[in-house]
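User: structure tokens for Nucleolar protein 9, please.
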Amino acid sequence: MRCERRAVRSERQPQTKVMVEEMEVKGQRYFKGGQKKGQKRPAQDGIKRRRLDATSVSYFRRVSERLSEGFTEDEEKALFVENVLSEVKGQAVLVSMDMTGSVALERLLSLASPAQVAGVLAELGGETGSEFRDVSCDQCGGHVMESALRQAHRWNEDDSDVTQEDEEHCGMLEAEVKRVCGVVRESLVQFLKDPYGSHVLRTLVQVLSGSLSPDAAAAQTGKKQKKAKAEVLDFEFPVSFWWELKHLSERLMENINVCVTDACASATLQTLLTVCHRKRPLLCRKLIKGIMGYLTALSSAPGVSPLLVFLKDPSCSHLMQTVFSCSQKAVLRDVYRSHLRTQLMPLALHPIANYTIQSLITASARFRVFLKIFDELMEGFEAILAAGHMGVVVLMVESCVYWEEKQNELLQRLLQAFHCSEPASLQVSCLPLFLSLLAYEVYYNTETAEGDALTQPVQRRLSVSYHGSRLVQALAGFKDRSVLMNSLHGFGSADLLTLGTDRSGSHALQKLLTAASDKGRGKILRKLEELYVPLACSSCGSRLLEAVWNSATVSQRQSIAEKLVPSESQLRSDQFARHIWAKFGLTNFMKRRADWQEVQTGESKKRKMFSDILQ
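Assistant: Done. Predicted tokens:
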């Protein structure tokens, strides 16, 4: 159900909870209470739970259907929104807390003007604004509150066409957002610990920072995006929002004990750190300093850093990952020296703490502290592999791209771990071992007995794992790729087709081909010549072929085109290959070869020019 998708489990973690309760520095106590699993949520204070009548439910269901159809004219849309909001007026709280009504109102607010949104918020808050808390902590009302708050991104929209009336309307919306902030600060702990109220609080933090996440930005249209975009929606916001964010941050730090131990509250603090890291770096540093100061000030067993407990905690470990990701070099260096030195191996092997170590590796990849982290983890490298914590291994490899002096050492350890280091002739088999994450004996099904030699390796079909593909992609970024390329040259047509059409394997092959020199790429392309058509007709293979085309020389492109053109009917009728046909300009290749050659030569020169500039 829609309203269940955000019901975050807020289970208490016994180890961290006891630690915080027993070791509070300033006498603060952990907020006790909360809803137990399986227990019904109590009715909100001050509001008796009522439902819309059947006629109203039917009306708002038709409103949702009409919104799904869309509008052809802005005037028609504005009139529809005005009429529906007139029906909502006087019962906005009831509509917001109804399953059907909230869905319609949530979508309607994204089409409403700032003044109309401000009017809805004013009614939801009541005269004193106290009802904001009840609506926000409701499973349906919370979604309406989020939708209303997100509309603040239109505060300074189309600045050149803003009239005096528009400024007044935006001022009304600004005032209502500030009123919400006041209520949130007064009842912060309740918002933090509530699974629905905490989502409203996270949206409020994003709005105050002038930065909406991709999910929040997508919600404006009420439609599900086919593919999530990485871009964050940044927008201009009034100066008062910055002060509200500052005051809210101070209140959060006053309740840091709740943010550390509660899953919902921890997620809110993570959101604050993330947006401040992008938009308010000085505030982010202040927050990190406060968080680390609180955690490290707690006493623990003699000689044991309290930070180790939180790194292993299911709730607080997520917060520590965000802290590491947003930290500067000095913080990472201090954390390693004072708390994590000689402790990285136990943490890397821990089922929860290994994720925080992954964040630490990523954050420190470009700093010299990484070299110390790398050396310590290399002492138990095989143990990390044996534990199956491939995320740690892959990130170590990816980080070594910035440290050429460590690349050969890591590659040799990988060859040893997969039992293909000695004799040197076994290294040609390393690529399928890396892709499948299987040792030589397991992959080739060889058995040894005391005094007996290895049996003849049994050829098997290539298998690819997700982390194996990530490992190969990272290794392809090393300066010396000869071992990988020699192994790739030993692949047969069947294995190359399997690799090129696999969801994970296609990315590995793409990285190897695009990172190779023109000469090395040409050798592999000659082996792929008979596979161009099946690759083009595959969802993953067509993407691979397009990437290879973009990095190929003009002569290599001509060779690819010559192999594809004879299968014109098959390619033009296939759902994936038809895009390849158009992208490669194969119709021109067949009928106007000279024009095609001129276009490809021009593109090649542009690509080389931009490559030289980037270098």
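User: Anything notable?

Assistant: The chain has a mean pLDDT of 84.
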